[in-house]
């Protein structure tokens, strides 16, 4: 197999670099620096992705991804039904189209009051997919078979000492009635029939009741709805779906909102933190990659006699430049491979290692780090490191190509 002359010389220089111990040491440090930077990037990005995934699962699975409501509530029923039928196969991201019945209320418990968001669920087929899987005590069958039953957060129940079968009162200010004591908000006793758990703040802020019960409390027809709730395959595509639906359908009489209006700031903060971690850890890789400049400049100085002889024998400036570019790229490839191997091992084994060593970074017993290992991002990180190493090789390679044989060999 005939290899290019520049590759043959670059390989010989890489093997011969052991003669120059100082140059070899700097080259080793540059490889190690790239490996550490790549490893740190893989670990941190995997943990950040895992953390974002946990937030997405715990919060976004339980809230409406997209809400479509008439701007004028009067006469909006038929329009909602027509629009719901039109949206059924309108976009591949749409998983469920559900009636929206919700309101804010006060949850009165035996010894406390708590502001909550009350969501109505019409029937078994109308349970949002994300909500269906978070019921940890009780059964949905009991919820629908019992009149005025309520499902509350497990954490709220533990905090307030509420058990299954206990009575709580929902007080709604949006509907009221006149009494001899004056105007009083609508209120009704509900029986706790189940607990849900998302392991997020929603456990204290949300409760579920049947839609017809909530409509009665709101003094609305039992089959009425305030809008349409869309459940998507990927909640992060909500804004794109909203834009596409707005272009496709006439929604000027409707108010269309995504989960970004209520929880967007939290996820924007997580995204900004991820981007900053990318930037800071990429700078570690960049500093390590530019150590290659020092190693290659010293190698060019050490090998300038040989370079001059090669050029007198007919080696072109382009091939001379390729020799040292390949040298720098080799350092980047080796460092990236080390970093990918170490980063993958640490990322995939960090939770078992924490369990064996009894180290708990989060401070919560039995809770490991959320990790989401993404092969494409690992490849992108390795490509970034190799690209920076290649960029760092440009100056030494150009300097070697500009050497004049006559000037170098004048005193030989």
Automatic annotation (TrEMBL):
Residues 32-247 form the MacB-like periplasmic core domain. Belongs to the ABC-4 integral membrane protein family. LolC/E subfamily. GO terms for cellular component: plasma membrane protein complex. Its main location: membrane. The chain crosses the membrane at residues 32-51, 278-300, 320-341, 375-395. The keyword Lipoprotein applies. The keyword Transferase does not apply. It comes from Psychrosphaera ytuae. Residues 279-405 form the ABC3 transporter permease C-terminal domain. It is found in: Cell membrane. This is Lipoprotein-releasing ABC transporter permease subunit. Pfam families: FtsX, MacB_PCD. GO terms for biological process: lipoprotein localization to outer membrane; lipoprotein transport. It is a multi-pass membrane protein. Keywords: Cell membrane, Lipoprotein, Membrane, Transmembrane, Transmembrane helix, Transport.
């Amino acid at each position: 197999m005939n290899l290019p002359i520049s590759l043959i010389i670059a390989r010989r220089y890489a093997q011969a670099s052991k003669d120059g111990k100082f140059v070899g040491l700097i080259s080793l440090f540059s490889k190690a620096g790239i490996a550490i930077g790549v490893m740190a990037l893989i670990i941190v990005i995997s943990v950040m992705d895992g953390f974002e995934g946990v937030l997405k699962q715990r919060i976004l699975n339980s809230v409406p991804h997209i809400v479509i409501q008439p701007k004028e509530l009067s006469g909006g029923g038929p329009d909602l039904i027509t629009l719901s039928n039109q949206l059924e196969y309108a976009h591949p991201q749409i998983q469920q189209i559900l009636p929206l019945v919700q309101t804010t209320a006060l949850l009165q418990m035996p010894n406390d009051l708590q502001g909550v968001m009350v969501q109505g669920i019409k029937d078994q087929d109308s349970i949002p997919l994300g909500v269906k899987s978070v019921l940890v005590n009780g059964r949905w069958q009991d919820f629908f078979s019992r009149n005025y039953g309520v499902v509350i957060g497990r954490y709220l129940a533990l905090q307030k000492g509420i058990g299954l079968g206990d009575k709580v009162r929902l007080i709604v200010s949006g509907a009221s009635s006149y009494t001899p004591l004056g105007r009083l908000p609508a209120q009704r006793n509900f029986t706790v029939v189940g607990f849900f758990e998302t392991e997020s703040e929603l456990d204290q802020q949300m409760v579920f009741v049947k839609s017809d019960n909530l409509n009665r409390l709101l003094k609305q027809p039992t089959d009425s709805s305030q809008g349409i709730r869309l459940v998507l395959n990927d909640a992060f595509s909500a804004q794109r779906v909203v834009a596409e639906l707005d272009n496709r359908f006439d929604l000027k009489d409707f108010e269309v909102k995504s989960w970004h209006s209520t929880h967007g700031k939290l996820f924007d903060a997580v995204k900004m933190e991820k981007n900053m971690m990318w930037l800071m850890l990429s700078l570690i890789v960049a500093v390590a990659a530019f150590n290659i400049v020092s190693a290659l400049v010293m190698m060019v100085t050490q090998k300038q006699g040989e370079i001059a002889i090669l050029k007198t024998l007919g080696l072109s400036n382009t091939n001379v430049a390729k020799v040292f570019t390949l040298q720098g790229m080799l350092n980047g490839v080796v460092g990236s491979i080390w970093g990918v191997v170490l980063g993958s091992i640490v990322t995939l084994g960090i939770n078992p290692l924490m369990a064996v060593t009894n180290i708990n970074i989060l401070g919560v017993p039995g809770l490991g780090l959320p990790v989401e290992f993404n092969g494409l991002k690992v490849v992108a990180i390795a490509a970034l490191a190799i690209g920076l190493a290649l960029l760092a090789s440009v100056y030494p390679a150009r300097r070697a190509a500009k050497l004049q044989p006559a000037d170098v060999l004048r005193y030989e």
